[in-house]
Write a structure and sequence with these properties.
By secondary structure, the chain is α/β, with parallel strands linked by helices. It has one domain: TIM Barrel (Alpha-Beta Barrel). The protein contains 12 helices and 18 strands.
Length: 436
């Protein structure tokens, strides 16, 4: 396959120019290399980049296939330009032992069109009270540890997991939320008071993030802060990085461009100049996510953290739920989470159009940087690297509708809105897995 006339953006190799990319035998054969036997694809007006890498997603398998399957989840990932995805272990049963990890990998090999790498739990049954066999799950194919969806209650278990990272080279990826402060359905603040909805205070996240950073410093372990969402959280990560603690942090597209106002039905973007969406009925549970959409000041702090390197990568936290679990019920009873694969690129492009950063920076945060962090073979278009490539149009406008999405669960507050930027083609190991 010869991808011709596209703007090649490959930050790992310092490439940003119009040219061609040759894919042969599952790998990148070269840049601007002609091959008369190759099938040519005209990419004029499009960007050709390494396939995106998502370090944080929920694919719901095993146990919750009514929300997403490996087939629909991987198709959704491919439609969003993601060729490698790390999946969280809050499944049924949870991924807390080597056998369960192996069984999931076998299903991935049979059912997925993209690369999916499993994350094992930190604790037995994801209860936060007893350690698992860290060496065994890594040997079985897991690439990290997380109790995502909950924080690990026992600080001793967390410390043991962090010590394991020093010999295994796999991070502990932490969902930070103090269990004594849970029970709310959105960010605690002016909007929750207006709606009369119990809130989740920012301190619930910051207390546990602070604890886990201290434990990482104590043990010398590798801590990965999932979905940092508050200004104080950014400050904490910045402080501990400056002290030499091995900490990685991520931000979500929705926390960068949305606030708690969305729960009130006011679909106003922050940090960018995108037009508001039509108001929705309040409270809008499609905007219910954990950690919750917070304030404009928090969104600005996250953007600043991304720009100064405090935040390392952008991930999606793709969290599909059946629509019956999100709409037509009280917001307090609705599930937390948003479907994110297919709206991630246009969401982040809104920040590019606002002038905060450029396309090569966007591509770096979604390709070479996550590849470097996890020592993955993708994330670049070097000769011999996997032919995981995405072709995307930063100008194409499209409407977010259930029919336009590949995910089984189109639970996003962006439904009905018109976004700019869409994936045209996605290749994994040189095989086309998505074509718009």
């Amino acid at each position: 396959m010869l991808l011709k006339n596209g703007r090649i953006v490959d930050p790992a190799n310092g490439i940003d120019r119009v040219g061609s990319v040759l894919l042969r035998d599952g790998v990148v054969a070269g840049i601007d290399v002609e091959d008369s036997s190759a099938t040519e694809v005209d990419c004029t007006g499009n960007i050709v980049s390494p396939g995106f890498i998502d370090l944080h997603a929920h694919l719901r398998v095993p146990g919750f296939e009514h929300k997403e399957t490996l087939a629909t989840g991987s198709a959704s990932a491919a439609a969003g330009g993601f060729t490698t995805v790390l999946c969280m272990p809050n499944t049924r049963p949870p991924l807390d032992n080597a056998q369960t990890v192996k069984e999931l990998i076998a299903r991935i090999d049979a059912e997925s069109c993209v690369r999916i790498l499993p994350i094992a739990t930190i604790s037995a049954e994801r209860q936060g009270l007893a350690s698992i066999d860290y060496d065994a799950v890594i040997a079985a194919g897991a690439v990290a540890f997380s109790d995502d969806g909950d924080s690990t209650i026992d600080s001793g278990v967390m410390a043991e997991a962090l010590r394991a990272t020093t010999r295994l080279g796999a991070p502990v990826m932490v969902h930070c939320e103090d269990r004594g402060l849970v029970g709310g359905a959105m960010h605690e603040g002016a909007v929750s008071a207006e709606l009369g909805v119990k809130g989740l205070p920012a301190a619930a996240e910051e207390i546990i993030l602070g604890r886990d950073l201290m434990l990482a410093e104590m043990t010398g372990g590798w801590l990965y802060g999932l979905h940092v969402s508050t200004a104080r959280g950014v400050e904490l990560v910045r402080e501990y990085k400056a002290r030499g603690v091995n900490v990685t942090a991520e931000a979500m597209p929705h926390h960068l461009i949305m606030t708690a106002e969305w729960v009130a039905g006011r679909r106003h973007f922050v940090n960018c100049n995108e037009p508001d969406g039509e108001p929705t009925e309040a409270p809008d549970a499609l905007a219910k996510v954990n950690p919750p959409l917070r304030t404009a000041a928090d969104a600005r702090a996250l953007l600043e953290g991304l720009l100064d390197g405090t935040i390392d990568v952008i991930a999606t936290d793709h969290a599909p739920h059946a629509m019956s679990e999100k709409v037509g019920i009280p917001i307090e009873a609705a599930a937390f989470g948003m479907s994110g694969f297919e709206v991630a690129l246009p969401s982040i492009l809104a920040l590019v159009r606002a002038g905060h950063f450029d396309i090569p920076q966007l591509v770096r945060w979604m390709t070479s940087k996550p590849a470097e962090i996890f020592d993955l073979p993708g994330g670049r278009l070097s000769p011999g690297s996997p032919a995981d490539v995405v072709v995307w149009n930063p100008e194409q406008r499209w409407q977010v509708t259930p029919d336009a999405l590949k995910t089984l669960s189109p639970n996003t507050p962006l439904l009905g809105m018109t976004l700019q930027g869409r994936v045209v083609r996605t290749f994994v190991a040189g095989n086309e897995v998505h074509a718009a």
